[in-house]
């Protein structure tokens, strides 16, 4: 059904994007005079002429009819580039992709929706953009409206829709395409859980009953598990794994773990949303006495926080949120203890015992909050970055499948025999 | 639909995507297969253009009417430019004269202007999904054709009024049949120039700024606001090489039943139009493959 051979895609570095004729002339004259390129941004890396970046580098695989393949990898691994090439949005630099059958690509929800048109008109529009003829849409329009759950709004212009309704309508169109190959990029990331489930079921269904081939990119491992029967793991433009879903996800997570566990972060110059960090600002975070943020579960994480304060306040709390690598919250702490900050620079020590946490990589999030007299929380600063750290087991203990048992080892549960 | 048994040969793959560009791979057949999309684009343009306006499609009539009035006053009354294409005494109402040139020019310039931005304006959808890129300029030329149709109908009403009223030199001749041909040529020429420009603007945005200015100059280089008689003898040969000029004069020749018509210049104009269109198609199909990387 799909056969890609040695596909590669090269992007030029340094001057991506449109250039104006003037810039081109300036560049040329600077080159002639042997001066520096005047159009380059200050601080931009000096890329040599012809220096390039391989978004995809020799990717070959084959997909059979009716297969449901998940494509996973980090940001920048080349997933979206691969889907773009397959949906013919742009052409590869080398190699060949052969496809058999009509391709319905959903790289974005609601491509081509026009705000002024009604839901019904947009179904025709969207269907036609995805390659359906009017006749085919006529035959399916009832099913599409039914599936979308928004029948009562179908003759309202979509500019009045909520984003959820928008997604439902867009997905319904794509799900009812008469295509042999369906290409999707994270389209399920939006929409509520119930509808997500409905979409996954629908895709499973069409794949089985109509032998439709599905290529699906996502960062959400749960939807990959539910939908796909095979995964391809991409890393830096190359295929590093191709096969069983669980093994592939494990491989992907291992490559995630290789990220740097920095012991120090400079936070002062970090851009925040408006209003954050105005009165109180996190300026630095240090995992104390560590070369990298790796801990054994019998250790205690000692954090040193540098906080700049514009005024004195004795009613502040440091909120610590620990999430796992899927970005699911594990625990929260901080409201139990008030701290007092003085005007100017402050240094705060935070101690986090981690004996409850299983061996895994976690992410720490920080917020500086206070509560008004009605008990409503007010966030003074949130740097909106996470600080990864790793916990390893100290002693021998039972094997702990984190996916099933969870990240927290509860020590307080007791049992006794009564009779 | 496809007879696939899982272990077919290479020939079973219908779509091949690779880095090679074939010079004459213009996707014309594919574009035709997407005719429903073309129709929907036309409908979308029409709806979104007149939505939330009080007068709606009436604007298609009001705009050229106002321009014609302005032309009649400024070029006709104040500047007193000639409206004759050929020497001699002919009576055509100035209003009809300016209107005939205006509706043609309005179609040509709008289509050229809009198609020259094809890639920039459609990058949102074209960056996410494949459809033959030519669908966009083709649908633009058709949706402008609707406006032109409305304007031409109004022109015919006024024309008919003058014909019945009498007292003009207008004659109804078989030459009227030339009208569809000139309209077709306008479509080909405007889309041709438009897609050449759109291919160039993906790399050089400056051109987009130049286009509207260039169109204005082009208008003055074409006999819209004046008759051919204004053109000095020694520039005449050069002047007639402007492919728009024979279109306009032929259009007037067709509707008024007299005027300037020279087969050589007319054929040259057709040849230039077709040539530009063909060059445009080749450039367009070349750029459309990877324009998303640079836009």
3D architecture notes:
The complex is a heterodimer of chains A (419) and B (295). With 419 residues, chain A is α+β, with helices and mostly antiparallel strands. Chain A folds into two domains: 2-12 and 50-257, P-loop containing nucleotide triphosphate hydrolases (Rossmann fold, 3-Layer(aba) Sandwich), CATH 3.40.50.300; 264-405, Coagulation Factor XIII, Chain A, domain 1 (Distorted Sandwich), CATH 2.70.50.60. In chain A, 24% of the residues lie in helices and 33% in strands. Chain A contains nine helices and 20 strands. Chain A has helices spanning 21-33, 79-86, 119-129, 134-148, 163-175, 193-209, 221-227, 245-257, 402-405; strands at 2-12, 52-63, 68-72, 94-99, 103-106, 181-185, 213-217, 230-235, 238-243, 264-266, 280-287, 294-296, 300-309, 313-324, 329-333, 339-341, 344-353, 360-371, 377-381, 387-392. In chain A, strands 12, 14, 15, 16, 18, 19 and 20 form a seven-stranded mixed sheet that branches. A six-stranded mixed sheet of chain A has the order 5-6-7-3-8-9, with helices on both faces. Chain A has a four-stranded antiparallel sheet with strand order 10-11-13-17, with no helix packed on it. In chain A, strand 8 (230-235) and strand 9 form a beta hairpin. The longest helix of chain A is centred in the middle third of the chain and has 17 residues, at 193-209. The termini of chain A are far apart. Mean pLDDT of chain A is 81; it is low at 41-49. The two termini of chain B are 37 Å apart. Chain B has one domain. Chain B is mainly alpha-helical and 295 residues long. Classes of the chains: A alpha+beta (419), B mainly alpha (295). Chains A and B meet through helix 1, helix 2, strand 4, strand 5 and helix 3 of A and strand 1, helix 2, helix 6 and helix 13 of B.
């Amino acid at each position: 059904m799909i056969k890609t051979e040695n596909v590669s895609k090269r992007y030029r570095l340094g001057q991506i994007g449109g250039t104006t004729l003037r810039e081109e002339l300036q560049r040329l004259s600077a080159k002639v005079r042997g001066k520096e390129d005047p159009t380059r941004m200050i601080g931009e890396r000096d890329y040599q002429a012809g220096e390039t970046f391989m978004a995809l580098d020799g990717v070959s695989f084959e997909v059979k009819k009716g297969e449901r393949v998940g494509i996973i990898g980090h940001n920048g691994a080349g997933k979206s580039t691969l889907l773009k090439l397959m949906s013919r949005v742009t052409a590869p630099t080398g190699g060949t992709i052969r496809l058999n059958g009509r391709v319905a690509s959903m790289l974005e929800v609601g491509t081509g929706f026009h705000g002024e048109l009604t839901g019904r008109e947009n179904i025709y529009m969207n269907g036609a953009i995805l390659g359906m003829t009017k006749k085919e849409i006529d035959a399916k329009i009832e099913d599409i409206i039914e599936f979308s759950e928004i029948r009562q709004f179908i003759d309202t212009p979509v500019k009045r829709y909520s984003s959820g309704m928008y997604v439902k309508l867009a997905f319904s169109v794509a799900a009812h395409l008469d295509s042999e190959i369906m290409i999707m990029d994270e389209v399920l990331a939006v929409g509520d859980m119930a509808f997500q489930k409905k979409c996954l079921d629908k895709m499973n269904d069409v794949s089985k009953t109509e032998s439709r081939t599905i290529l699906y990119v996502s960062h959400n491992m749960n939807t990959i598990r539910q939908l796909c029967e095979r995964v391809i793991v991409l890393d830096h433009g190359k295929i590093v794994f191709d096969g069983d879903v669980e093994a592939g996800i494990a491989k992907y997570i291992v490559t995630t773990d290789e990220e740097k566990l920095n012991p120090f972060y400079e936070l002062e110059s970090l851009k925040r949303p408006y209003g954050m960090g105005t009165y109180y600002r996190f300026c630095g975070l240090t995992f104390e006495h560590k070369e990298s943020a790796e801990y054994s579960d019998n250790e205690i994480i000692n954090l040193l926080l540098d906080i700049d304060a514009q005024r004195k306040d004795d009613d502040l709390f440091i909120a610590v949120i620990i999430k796992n690598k899927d970005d699911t919250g594990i625990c929260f702490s901080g409201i139990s203890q008030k701290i007092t900050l003085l005007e100017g620079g402050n240094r705060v020590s935070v101690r986090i015992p981690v004996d409850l946490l299983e061996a895994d990589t976690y992410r720490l999030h920080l917020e500086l909050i206070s509560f008004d007299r009605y008990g409503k929380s007010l966030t003074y600063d949130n740097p909106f970055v996470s600080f990864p750290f790793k916990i390893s087991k100290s002693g021998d203990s039972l094997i702990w499948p984190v996916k099933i048992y969870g990240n927290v080892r509860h020590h307080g549960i007791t049992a006794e025999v009564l009779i | 639909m496809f007879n696939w048994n899982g272990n077919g040969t290479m020939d079973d793959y219908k779509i091949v995507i690779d880095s090679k560009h074939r010079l004459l791979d213009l996707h014309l057949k594919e574009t035709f297969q997407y005719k429903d999309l073309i129709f929907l684009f036309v409908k979308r343009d029409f709806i979104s253009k007149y939505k939330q306006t009080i007068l709606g499609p009436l604007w298609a009539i009001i705009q050229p009417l106002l321009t014609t009035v302005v032309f009649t006053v400024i070029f006709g009354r104040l500047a007193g430019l000639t409206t004759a294409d050929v020497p001699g005494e002919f009576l055509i109402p100035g209003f009809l004269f300016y209107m005939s040139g205006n509706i043609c020019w309005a179609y040509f310039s709008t289509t050229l202007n809009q198609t020259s931005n094809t890639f920039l304006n459609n990058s949102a959808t074209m960056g996410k999904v494949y459809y033959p890129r030519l669908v966009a300029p083709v649908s633009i030329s058709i949706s402008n054709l609707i406006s032109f149709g409305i304007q031409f109908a109004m022109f015919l009403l006024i024309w008919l009024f003058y014909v019945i009223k009498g007292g003009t030199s207008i004659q109804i001749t078989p030459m009227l049949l030339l009208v569809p041909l000139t309209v077709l040529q306008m479509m080909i020429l405007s889309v041709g120039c438009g897609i050449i420009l759109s291919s160039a603007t993906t790399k050089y945005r400056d051109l987009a700024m130049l286009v509207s200015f260039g169109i204005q100059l082009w208008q003055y280089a074409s006999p819209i606001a004046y008759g051919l008689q204004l053109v000095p003898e020694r520039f005449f040969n050069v002047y007639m090489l402007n492919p728009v000029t024979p279109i306009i004069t032929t259009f007037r020749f067709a509707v008024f039943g007299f005027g300037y018509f020279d087969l050589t210049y007319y054929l040259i104009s057709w040849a230039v139009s077709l040539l530009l269109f063909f060059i445009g198609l080749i450039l367009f199909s070349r750029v459309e493959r990877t324009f998303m990387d640079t836009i």
